User: Which sequence fits this backbone?
């Protein structure tokens, strides 16, 4: 049974930044139960399993696991796994690959500047929430939440609360109260919380993001492609920057020592929003479980 794997840093401009990912190849012989155990052993926010080095019906079958459970979609695993497929399986020449995930087929294209771009499924907008409820969970004063925009559940395959804050100071200050967090998510579709503000640590970036996903065994995620995809749709829908189309640089992970960069694009066409999330991946290790 093959248990060879790669470790990558995803949404990273260099090694030892971004979000860590383990990718297993030719994993069809590994049971779902053992995949979950391997993901828990690795203990990154996600681990992926490419079932075969051969394409099936135009795409590669991939499963994604957090330390706690399998998920239908996640962003940095999609980008990182596509990087492995292109460079380690296909020889580095492919202009695009398609991952067949539980959420459906996700195409990833590769640009000459080293960025990989995934087209996410169209966002679905769900329940809205009162600022007071999220302020309690996040340890913030309700006045630090930007009430010009709603707190809203959004999903492009994995749902998140999108919470707009007024300042970088508020974003840095946020600290999740786990007891109140688990009470909040008892009756909601979304389990992850994404907070963002229109200020950045680096002058070349546009927004700062933090993501809390304790439900999946990850107290804070350093780079969240799925959540940032939801955010891109949210920014477009609510004309956050005064326009319906979005093209921004989103930074994440600074508060936990894993600075990350995600490129977000959203194109609104009538009632539809097309979402693209881009980033770089760097292979840092490879090995095998015995």
Assistant:
């Amino acid at each position: 049974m093959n248990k060879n794997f790669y470790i990558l840093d995803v949404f990273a401009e260099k090694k030892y930044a971004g979000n860590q990912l383990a990718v297993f190849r030719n994993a069809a012989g590994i049971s779902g139960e053992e995949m979950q155990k391997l993901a828990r052993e690795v203990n990154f926010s996600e681990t992926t399993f490419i079932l075969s080095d051969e394409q099936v019906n135009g795409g590669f079958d991939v499963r994604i696991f957090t330390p706690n459970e399998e998920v239908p979609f996640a962003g940095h695993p999609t980008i990182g796994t596509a990087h492995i497929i292109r460079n380690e399986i296909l020889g580095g020449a492919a202009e695009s690959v398609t991952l067949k995930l539980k959420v459906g087929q996700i195409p990833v294209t590769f640009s000459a500047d080293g960025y990989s771009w995934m087209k996410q499924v169209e966002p679905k907008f769900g329940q809205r929430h009162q600022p007071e409820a999220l302020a309690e969970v996040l340890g913030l004063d309700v006045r630090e939440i930007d009430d010009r925009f709603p707190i809203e559940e959004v999903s492009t395959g994995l749902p998140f609360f999108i919470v707009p804050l007024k300042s970088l100071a508020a974003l840095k200050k946020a600290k999740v109260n786990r007891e109140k967090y688990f009470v909040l998510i008892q009756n909601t579709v979304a389990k992850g919380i994404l907070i963002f503000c229109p200020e950045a640590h680096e002058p070349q970036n546009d927004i700062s993001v933090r993501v809390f996903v304790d439900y999946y065994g990850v107290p804070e995620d350093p780079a969240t492609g799925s959540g940032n995809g939801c955010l891109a749709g949210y920014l477009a829908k609510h004309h956050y920057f005064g326009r319906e189309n979005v093209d921004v640089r989103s930074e994440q992970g600074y508060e936990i020592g894993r600075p990350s960069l995600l490129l977000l694009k959203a194109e609104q066409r009538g009632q539809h929003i097309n979402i693209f999330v881009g980033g770089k991946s760097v292979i840092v290790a490879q090995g095998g479980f015995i």
Remarks:
- The chain has two domains: 4-120+280-288, 124-278.
- The longest strand covers residues 260-269.
